[in-house]
Specification:
alpha+beta, about 120 residues, about 30% helix, 4 strands, UPF0145_dom_sf, four-stranded mixed sheet, UPF0145 protein FNH09_14195
Length: about 120
């Protein structure tokens, strides 16, 4: 499978390979475009916050919070892929997520990495 055949996140038309490594076997970096990121902040509605508070007292998975974090993470990654594609990249190297609380108003998720143009060796 060549680089042009990879889909990124939920948008295969973007054709951006996203990897956590600094290189891709069988490919060389032709151009470093630079840092790209996708950022989103999500809050939870009051009902799910109360449910999570009660659940945390008795233990177990906070399924509502897990669902929110998965959706947030996916949206951040989609935005990263869109930005990389818009800048002419076909890959993002050294991909990472950063998750923080945003002033007690929600959860901030930032997906980031280095946008590059890869070519087969």
């Amino acid at each position: 499978m060549g680089i042009d055949e990879y889909g990124g996140g939920q948008q295969p038309q973007a054709a951006v390979l996203v990897v956590t490594t600094n290189d891709v076997p069988g490919h060389r970096v032709e151009q470093v475009i630079g840092e790209v990121f996708g950022l989103t902040v999500r809050s939870r509605h009051l009902g799910s916050q109360i449910g999570a508070g009660l659940k945390s007292m008795i233990g177990g998975e906070l399924k509502g919070l897990t669902k929110t974090l998965v959706a947030t993470r996916n949206q951040a990654m989609e935005r990263l892929v869109e930005q990389a594609h818009a800048r002419g990249a076909n890959a993002v190297l050294a991909f990472r997520f950063d998750v923080t609380d945003a002033a007690d108003a929600g959860t901030e998720v930032c997906a980031y990495g280095t946008a590059v143009v890869l070519a087969r060796e």
